[in-house]
Structures are given as structure tokens and as C-alpha cells.
Amino acid sequence: MSDATEVATIPITVDFSGGLEMLFDNQRRHSVALPAAQTSGKPANIAFLIDYLCKNLMKDPRSDLFVLDGHIRPGILVLINDADWELEGEEAYEIQPRDNILFVSTLHGG
Amino acid sequence: MRPALCVNCKTERALIKRPKNHEKLCKACFIAVFEDEVHHTITSSRLFSPGEKVAIGASGGKDSTVLASVLKTLNERHNYGLELVLLSIDEGIKGYRDDSLETVKRNAVQYEMPLKVVGYDELYGGEDQVVETIGKKGNCTYCGVFRRQALDRGAKMLGIKHVVTGHNADDVAETVLMNLLRGDLARLSRSTSIVTGDSRSEVKRSKPLKYSYEKEIVLYAHHKKLDYFSTECIYSPEAFRGSARGLIKQLERVRPTAILDIVRSGEDMARLVPGESKPSCACKGQAPGALASAEDDIGGCGSQNGRTPGNEMAAMDKRLRENEAHEGLEIDVAKAMSESKTGSERQRELPIRGGHGDSKPRQVLGNCKRCGYMSSQDICQACMLLEGLNKNRAQIQI
Ligand SMILES: [Zn+2]
């Protein structure tokens, strides 16, 4: 986490719904400047974003409601520009500028 | 990666990958297919009759909101001739459910349906302390028992004999799994029928979304931009239910068809139980048949976070379980309805044990000595729970 000014970032929007907004300051939409590359040098992908959100955006200590064993908690849907992430390569999808990533929980309230 | 095209219309970009068959669909085709499948479930199980008044158990959550939206759409599209009413239960807990009720009120306007809100105070005689205690102490068990009764009673107040709830395939699979793990084939059988109810109360309950994946319900709500409310339920599910739910979600991740497969397995096992109904839909293959789900055990509030409950809740659950083992409140309407079935498929007679290995005779339905609600016990489930709560409170106060 050194010298953030030199880090190239990708502007994206991240949405939370279905109850997940509770973990993120009760706010549904967040504008995020995501580092364009991971520490390994690989381009930022969804797995990196999830880790980034846990470390930088989550206001709630209950990260297990979002991530289990290093992966998105089963029962949470991920939509990349409104498409199911299963159609886009899931965690490996490389994030593009102005992407919208939506995390929606199916686990809350009938 | 080039975006995949919809396998149906072959023109639009696919946005959905269906868990049941991996089909890639665009938004419009997905919405159409989702609605068609619910329509198929409704018609093949002859869920409704023309002119019927139907109350939709509405919580403002995703399942009941989708149910209301789909039923309105199908009722108009296929001329079911239904009179649809939203029926909502107000637990009377300050701060909690306020937003849910507000959502239901908006839904009533959006779907042009009358809304009836029934308060616990109305049902349980304005005993504020009791109402408050139910709210504070409750878990899904309480939620389920009280809300089920409340829906029945609310429907009766409206003169309605049919309540539909938003229980989905994930809920049914969870219940099948729980009964399987308990070795309770008799209840497993009842828990798979699409229609349940009580001949005495004359209120029939059904689950038109029985074959709909929770995932698709959420996606339907998302793509149709439905107005629903998500809250973390203040009731935590018992540990066992939480585990079953977690397992189902994990299975779905590796093998999405698992959820409907569990539901179908439950239905197949139900057919082995002597005296249980056969499916009313003979469809095999991709379209899900409208087979038989019961409510016995289907979670009350639908909010499953898999939290660990206290021992107290486990003990309460055990008492309930023992109570329910007497073949309590539930009587299978589907069974009565399918009496004229053909005997083409011979049923195997298997010795079916109850969940507890004992074979108490089926009890006669009577009325609860406290509240007068129909019950196979001297004291109904709701009153038993209240008694337990009061005992606990007394202990705390000492
Ligand atoms: Zn299409």
C-alpha cells in the first residue's frame, strides 16, 4: 500500500442489494477506483475486486456474510454489466473501465 | 470474450444462465420462460378455479413480491379469473418490518390489489407483552408457526379459502433434505406436496413457485425492477436448518441442477409412502411437473443466515418436533383431491416410520383449549410456544 498516486486505477461502479448493502455502509451504489493491476502484476479481475472490497469498502466486521473460504459466499449472485458472471468467466473476468458489478444476495428475507 | 447470444431468440445478448439446464437466455426470453413455467405448474396441478378468491401471503420480500407480480401477470394473460388480495402479517414489533410493510403497501398500489394487514395484537388479543416477547425471542420456528396461523386466520377474516405463499424450490429442497437427514419419510412425503391445508379450517395453502429457483426469483425481480425489501431477519434459523440451507447453496454452486433434483427425489420418495398422493402432473422431462410440497417444515420467514442458535431454541424445536410428530395441524388436501387416481402405478408398501420411531395413532382434530384454534393437541403449537416463552421470562425475572 505505498504511493497510491502512481497506481493506475479503473473507474467502476459496484452495487450491492438483497441485503448486502448493510455490509457496505447501507449504501447501494459505490464508485470505486480499482487498482488496474494486482500486486502480482496481473490485470484486476473479479477475484481481486472481491478481496479489494473486503479490505477497503466493507464497513461491517461480518465479512463471512460476503466471502467464505476466500470466495464469494454461495447464494450471492454476481452480475457483470447485468449478465450473470457465469457467462463472463466468474472470478477470472478482467475488469474493464466503467464496468458495473452487482452483488445481490438471495439469502435474505422471503 | 464475445458475449453469448440467447439460445431462444438468437438475437439478444444472453444475460442469464439457467441453473436447471444451463440455458443461456436474454432478459426478455428469461422473463417469458420463468412466467410460462409458473403457469405450467399452476395449470398442471389445477391450483386455481375460476372466480376463486386467493390471498397472497406478502412480506415485501423477494419471493412474495415476485409471486404477486407473476400471479397478476398470469391472471390477466391467461384469464384465470382470480380475485387476488395481498395478506400481510404485522408482528407489531417497533422498527422491525416497518419497511417491509411499507413495501407491501407500495406493492398493493403497483399491482392494484387490495391489501389486508393482520396484526398479532388482533390475533392474540392485544397482549402486548406476549406480542413483544414473540418478537424478541423468536427464531424461524416461532416465525413459521405464528405466521402460518396468522395467515390462516387473516384469510378467514377475509372469507378467503386459499392462501398462496412464496416458497421456492430451494425452500422445498431444504425441507426434503432436513426430513431425509432425520429419517422422517412420512413428513418428507407431506413436505413435497404443492397444496397443503387443513380440511377443518377450510383454508388451503399452496406454493406456485415450488419449482422456481431462488436464484431465478432474485433475477426475475432484478430484471423486472420489482420493488422488494431485503432485511436481515431478526429471527435466526435453528442450526440444523441453517446447515441444510448452507449445504444446498454449496451444492448449487458445483451442480446447479441439484436443487430441483432434490425436490424431484423428495417427490419420488413420497410416492413410496403408503397412502400418499401421486403427482397431479404426469410431465416428465424438462418442464417441471406440478407434483405434490407441505409446509410442515418450510421455514417461516425465509431468511436463512445459518446462525447458531442457543440450546434453548434447540430444546424448543425438539418439543415442537415431538408435537408435530402427532401428525398435527397439517392435513394433506392434495391427498383428498387425488382420490380418483388411476392405479396404473402400483405402490410399494413400505413400513414407514415416523420421525421418532413410535407409532402413535393418528390424532383426531379438535380445538386448542386455550385459543380455540384447530389443533390435534389439547394446546395448539402457538399456545405451546407462548407458554414456553412465559416460562423463560419468569426465569429471567427471578
Ligand atoms: Zn432471447
From TrEMBL, chain A:
Pfam families: Urm1. It comes from Staphylotrichum longicolle. Belongs to the URM1 family. InterPro entries: Beta-grasp_dom_sf, Mopterin_synth/thiamin_S_b, Urm1. Pathway: tRNA modification; 5-methoxycarbonylmethyl-2-thiouridine-tRNA biosynthesis. The keyword RNA-binding does not apply. Acts as a sulfur carrier required for 2-thiolation of mcm(5)S(2)U at tRNA wobble positions of cytosolic tRNA(Lys), tRNA(Glu) and tRNA(Gln). Serves as sulfur donor in tRNA 2-thiolation reaction by being thiocarboxylated (-COSH) at its C-terminus by the MOCS3 homolog UBA4. The sulfur is then transferred to tRNA to form 2-thiolation of mcm(5)S(2)U. Prior mcm(5) tRNA modification by the elongator complex is required for 2-thiolation. Also acts as a ubiquitin-like protein (UBL) that is covalently conjugated via an isopeptide bond to lysine residues of target proteins such as AHP1. This is Ubiquitin-related modifier 1. PANTHER family: RURM1 PROTEIN. It is found in: Cytoplasm. It comes from the Eukaryota. Keywords: Cytoplasm, Isopeptide bond, tRNA processing, Ubl conjugation pathway. The modification 1-thioglycine is found at residue 110. GO terms for biological process: protein urmylation; tRNA thio-modification; tRNA wobble uridine modification. There is a cross-link at residue 110 (Glycyl lysine isopeptide (Gly-Lys) (interchain with K-? in acceptor proteins)). One of its GO terms (cellular component) is cytosol. CDD domains: Ubl_Urm1. C-terminal thiocarboxylation occurs in 2 steps, it is first acyl-adenylated (-COAMP) via the hesA/moeB/thiF part of UBA4, then thiocarboxylated (-COSH) via the rhodanese domain of UBA4.
From TrEMBL, chain B:
It is found in: Cytoplasm. Pathway: tRNA modification; 5-methoxycarbonylmethyl-2-thiouridine-tRNA biosynthesis. GO terms for biological process: protein urmylation; tRNA wobble position uridine thiolation. Residues 53-232 form the tRNA(Ile)-lysidine/2-thiocytidine synthase N-terminal domain. The gene is NCS6. Belongs to the TtcA family. CTU1/NCS6/ATPBD3 subfamily. Transmembrane segments: none annotated. This is Cytoplasmic tRNA 2-thiolation protein 1. Residues 342-361 have a biased composition (Basic and acidic residues). Its EC number is 2.7.7.-. Pfam families: ATP_bind_3, zn-ribbon_14. Keywords: ATP-binding, Cytoplasm, Nucleotide-binding, RNA-binding, Transferase, tRNA processing, tRNA-binding. It is an enzyme of class 2 (transferase).
